[in-house]
Amino acid sequence: MKRIIPFLVALTMVVCLSACTSGGNGNSSGNGSGTDEVKNELLGDEYKLNYTSDKEFLIYPYGGVPGKLRVYDANGALIQDNIEISDDQMREYYRQLKETGMTMTSGGYYMTYQDYVRQLKFCEEFDIKMMVYDANLVALLKNTGIGNGEAVTTILENYHELFESPAFAGISVDDEPSPAELSGFKTALQRWRLIEEIEGRELIFYINLFPSIAFRTSSDGTFSDYIAKFVSEVDVDYVCYDHYVLFKGRDGNYLGKDFLYNLITARLNGGGRKMYTVLQSIKYGGLNRELECADDVTFQMYGAIACGYEGFGWFCFWPPVPNDGATNFGAAAYDRQTNQPTPTYYYLKEGINEVKKLQDVFFNFEWQGIRTVIGTDNNDGGENEDFIMSAAGEISTPGILGVKTQQDTVIGVFKDKEGQDGYMVVPFVEPSSGLKNKVSIQFAGCTKVAVWENGEQKVYTAPDGKFNFTQTSGDGYFIVPLA
Length: 483
Prior knowledge:
Number of domains: 2
Shape: globular
Largest sheet: 6 strands, antiparallel
Number of helices: 12
């Protein structure tokens, strides 16, 4: 991935602090005054910070390794079905899954209970957790026609092989329930808590929610209300939704205009819970494109991290059927003709493993809000529709005296337990574009900065608090100003 490039420029820095919290769209224009020149020098390793954490990002595929293989021809016609996977081949698939950096897997399509039991052994071997979906198990949890004791006993007896595995992470319960359906999980979750008490460990009760596009009319309610209702009705410690923003049209690739809005709206209405989101790794429909580079992966993850997210699903890993009756799907990380990795697999592997290098510093900080900056190269009249819709997440940043960027940029604002500021700087542009983002920031009370440049820490001098650097689309830098 790209490296940070300190540059010597005429620094137009002194941006009014109120620019980040006032004005038509609530974000900085990126304009300032002054001609200060500054050179940032690389310091030795002795200046590096030593943040450590035993926490890790939750990273998982939608559509994990299947129980059996299918083979399709180039036109999407099924030519072989129910092909057995040998132990050696299954082990290789799980080795490949592990190497992507994913920490948990969901089951593959059309999995049987015995498929899950078999694959849990490979999960144990490669230290990967598995989230299981079993319709009969979920039905037992939700069945109000029997008592809690009978339901729990039946589940523990019928599914004992799951609970005996240290790789068993919990269950997938539902995908994109409507607002009206959220209250229906109360009994199931109550019973799941009883099972956790008996088993003596926490087990995920996973529900993935709709994104904002499901709430386009007033009769549907609002996305904010939907997230708040989930928090009120379902007593779990996370919020998760899916949203896909990589598009290709006649004029080339472009970024959806509501990626930040979804991240911020879910975050602000999530009641302080852990935040997960399912991101795009497959071509589907008429416009959503396939991954074309690792920057497509890192942009989505860094953008979410700037909003305080710590869980990332990928739709999809193993490809679903070519057409489900409504939508055409691409190949994802595996090819339907060969059942071998595609370029998407290697983009995920490169991108995920880069972003995971941020875990130690990220988990020592708490998210506060965002600051958005309109870049000098903005071609939309000095506005950004996504930034305007996301204004509720904007906060004042007294630790930043001035900022100027070349591209529209999101800055995630963080503090550690000692009150130390941290900032996640992400160019908010189409990730495959290769656009450069020259950034000039002046921090208050600062003489040097620790910077995680695509996951690798370096420390630079910052004369008078000023720090200049160049990013490329797909980059994300976590910056800690130091006195």
